[in-house]
Write a structure and sequence with these properties.
This protein has about 300 residues and is of the alpha/beta class. It has helices spanning about 5-10, 40-45, 65-70, 75-95, 110-115, 115-140, 155-170, 185-200, 210-215, 265-275, 290-295; strands spanning about 55-60, 100-105, 145, 175-180, 230, 250-255. It has a 6-stranded parallel sheet, sandwiched between helices. The structure holds farnesyl diphosphate. Farnesyl diphosphate (FPP) binds near residues 62, 64, 66 and 110.
């Protein structure tokens, strides 16, 4: 599938047990649009190791309601301001050449548990956002896609989404994926249903199921897993977001509310990511022991 080849390889081949700066390229940025960053963004970008940028950043955009509440505004104005952050952060991502940016825009739980008036407003906002920003996506070479049970969204919203995806389909820069009517558990249910159907069709016994098979049936089959998961507004939760895919993601939580989040804050999160040591269940270089040492350790009876 388009985009799967080199990016999946880069993410999977990062050596285990090495810190980011020693790991070799996770993904190397194209520097061609760095001059379009603001002076403040360029100053942060200058501190980054450009051969070790995350390939896929996923964001839980939280805090729209609190942003509005703290200004004695109605909640919907927080969402409206949040939509501006979506565009600005996407443009910074595209300027640094980030291949994959995936934003949690509307969860299944939001759809079921928020007042109808708020859900209807979010749907209208999404439509208007797409109408108003597709040209900017074209100018920034951004491709728009979606994950989630999008077939359950109102027809006119689905039509607008399809239009935006088709219009931007041939862009080759950042892929902006909006998670809409999305839930991590329901994604896994959908993947199991489609995998079970495939197994039955091909008469394959369940013992032969591998992780790669499950991955192939997720909404995100064509993407590498996120390297970095950002959550705004200080909550320490993953909220049913990309549950399978974030197994080894670095998590960065900021107190900043989503409507105040800008490209510079994305770059700060990337700087923090680059200070982490990613071990993928392995060990860092300095703490390994030899076979001989392991053999001579006395294990006390417990
Ligand atoms: C959380 O804020 C955010 C959402 C429910 C959805 C995110 C929506 C946007 C950023 C705006 C629309 C997006 C697009 C793509 C047009 P919250 O209401 O849960 O905030 P709170 O926890 O402070 O109440």
């Amino acid at each position: 599938m388009r985009g799967a080849g080199p990016s999946k390889r880069a993410a999977r081949d990062a050596p285990i047990g090495k810190s980011c700066h020693k790991a070799g390229p996770l993904y190397s940025a194209s520097t061609s649009r760095i001059h379009e960053l603001s002076a403040e963004e360029r100053a942060v970008y200058a501190t980054l190791k450009t051969d070790c940028l995350p390939e896929h950043v996923a964001i839980i955009m939280d805090g729209n309601g609190r942003w509005a509440g703290s200004r004695s505004l109605k909640r919907f104005l927080g969402h409206q301001q949040g939509a501006k952050s979506v565009q600005l952060v996407t443009e910074t991502a595209s300027r640094i050449g980030l291949p994959w940016l995936t934003l949690y825009a509307f969860s299944l739980e939001n759809n079921l548990r928020r007042p109808r008036a708020e859900v209807n407003f979010l749907m209208r906002l999404l439509k208007i956002y797409l109408e108003n920003n597709v040209q900017r996506m074209m100018d920034n070479n951004v491709r728009i896609r979606y994950i989630g049970r999008t077939h359950e969204l109102p027809r006119e919203v689905q039509d607008k989404m399809a239009w935006a995806a088709e219009t931007t389909e041939r862009n080759t820069g950042t892929t902006l994926t909006l998670a809409l009517n999305y839930g991590g558990r329901s994604e896994i249910v959908d993947a199991f249903r489609s995998l079970a159907a495939e197994l039955a069709r091909k008469h394959i016994p369940p013992e032969r199921i591998t992780e790669a098979d499950i991955n192939r049936h997720l909404y995100t089959a064509h993407m590498p897993d996120p390297d970095l998961l950002i959550r705004t507004s200080g909550e320490m939760r993953v909220s049913n977001y990309l549950l399978w895919q974030i197994a080894y993601a670095e998590i960065y939580v900021t107190d900043r509310l989503w409507p105040d989040f800008r490209g510079i804050h994305l770059l700060e999160a990337v700087a923090d990511f680059q200070r982490r040591e990613r071990r993928f269940g392995g060990l860092s270089d300095s703490v390994g022991i030899t076979d001989e040492e392991a053999e001579h350790v006395n294990i006390a009876a417990s």
